[in-house]
Design brief:
By secondary structure, the protein is an alpha/beta fold. The protein is 36% helix and 22% strand. Helix 3 crosses helix 4 and helix 5 packs parallel to helix 6.
Length: 307
């Protein structure tokens, strides 16, 4: 059975009337993006990158053409359905962070959950889970004025991830950061993409970031001029045990773990380190590392805890 794209653009165009001139921000774009991919939409300022993201996110309507998300045409959604799509199915990361200044990091992260009728206790629990996953649990009580640019962007990423979205859009998320913080943010997005299997679509004009992508979509003058890379999972390979995705666990160690009764991520996450270390090929150090990583993966997959 052929894979179905998570996002599909069909002859997508967006034109603006500027007095006597028509500006073609996007012109007949056709594109398919698949679940779990890390996509970079690349091009210089004014090429249509942010316009394309706005159409994918349901923030704007096309002049012509269609956007399908998991087979559903966004144009056919009513106002309430479109609002729910934006609240629960996508996450947004902006260049300007867009944190509420008088709220703490924890409050900023759990804010999207308030609109879904989730109790305060559960909102706090899920927000703390994702803050810990991203490595910033120690700043949960800090407001944005007390944080560096890199820390603010990590809080913004946590807020985007807390609703367990299908797709996360990041519009020039490193534009206000120094090179070190920018690299840390890119690595974080890539790690979250790999662990949670969620689709990430990043808008950028910086060619240094292209190696992070599974595929790069090159835009120029509102048109897709080239797509590089391969669709994730498109080539057939030996079916690997999910345990082999853990750092330091090869085929043999994965087989030994399974023989010992640790058959999946949940088994690893809930095991005692000393029990894992008894398995042939698993040292005490490796046992500690894979248990921690498995716990992070479970949290990411299951929507950051209690719903």
């Amino acid at each position: 059975m052929a894979r179905k794209p998570v996002i599909k653009a069909v002859n997508l165009s967006k034109y603006y009337q500027m007095v006597t001139t028509i500006v073609k921000a996007l012109d007949k774009v056709n594109l398919e993006i698949y679940s779990g991919e890390f996509i970079i939409i690349f091009g210089q300022s004014g090429c249509g990158k942010s316009t394309l993201m706005s159409l994918f996110a349901g923030l704007d309507k096309p002049t012509s053409g269609e956007v399908f998300v998991r087979g559903e045409n966004l144009a056919e959604l009513n106002t309430l359905q479109l609002s729910k799509y934006r609240r629960t199915k996508i996450g947004m990361v902006f260049q300007q962070y867009n944190l509420v200044p008088n709220m703490t990091s924890l409050e900023n992260v759990y804010l999207p959950l308030a609109f879904e009728g989730i109790s305060r206790r559960r909102r706090i629990k899920r927000a703390r889970n994702v803050l810990e996953l991203i490595g910033i649990a120690d700043i949960e009580r800090h407001t944005s004025s007390e944080l560096s640019g890199g820390q603010q962007q990590r809080v913004s990423i946590a807020r985007a991830w807390v609703t367990s979205p299908w797709i996360v859009f990041a519009d020039e998320p490193t534009g206000n950061l120094d090179s070190k913080s920018a690299d840390e943010v890119l690595r974080l997005l890539k790690q979250l993409n790999q662990k949670s299997k969620r689709t990430v679509i990043l808008i950028s004009h910086n060619p240094e970031y292209l190696p992070y992508a599974d595929r790069v979509v090159y835009l120029k003058d509102g048109k897709v001029i080239r797509i590089s890379g391969k669709i994730k999972g498109a080539t057939k390979r030996r079916k690997r045990s999910e345990l082999e995705s853990l750092q330091g666990v090869g085929k043999t160690a994965a087989q030994n773990l399974q023989k010992a009764g640790f058959e999946n991520m949940l088994d690893i996450a809930s095991a005692k380190e000393e029990d894992l270390a008894q398995v042939n090929g698993v040292s005490k150090k490796l046992a500690k590392l894979i248990r921690k990583e498995a716990q992070e993966i479970i949290v990411a997959r299951e929507g950051f805890g209690e719903k």
